[in-house]
Amino acid sequence: MQIDTDKFVLKALSSGALVDDCNANRSAMLAAAINAAKNAYCPYSKFHVGAALLTITADIYAGCNVENVMYNGMSHAELTAISNAIVHEGSDMLIAEMVIWTPTPEPTPSCGGCRQLLREHIASRSDSVIWSFCDDPTRPPLGMTVDELLPHSFGPENLA
Length: 160
Ligand SMILES: [Zn+2]
Hints:
Elements: H1 5-15, H2 25-38, E1 50-55, E2 60-64, H3 77-89, E3 95-101, H4 112-121, E4 129-133, E5 142-145, H5 146-149
Helix pairs in contact: 1-2
The structure holds zinc ion.
């Protein structure tokens, strides 16, 4: 996958598509997501996806999609980023914000399975934002909370 990560992030910043309103974390997450996408193992779909999340302890962890020839048990980028964060911070890790990058002309929202997974580990279902960026650095990302991605969701409290 040919993409200059630094140039992409700079162009996104200069175009206003990447509004760094809080701090440099979103730029760093976008760069980490693009770099993760470069390492995706996707010989079957050829769809490189990268994700990077910011934990509430202010650390960034990235992930990419990992496929296999059986086409089942595929690991999406959101899953591998969350797994990476749990490995480093433990099972009570919480996501403050997440960036997903896909090589598409428009932002691609997470699949249903990943939405449920995000619901499990998000710091706030109504405030923590999942940002979907695409291959066009001038296009604003799609930013949605878990409550918007997965309304009336099923969660651990429903098992009680
Ligand atoms: Zn998914």
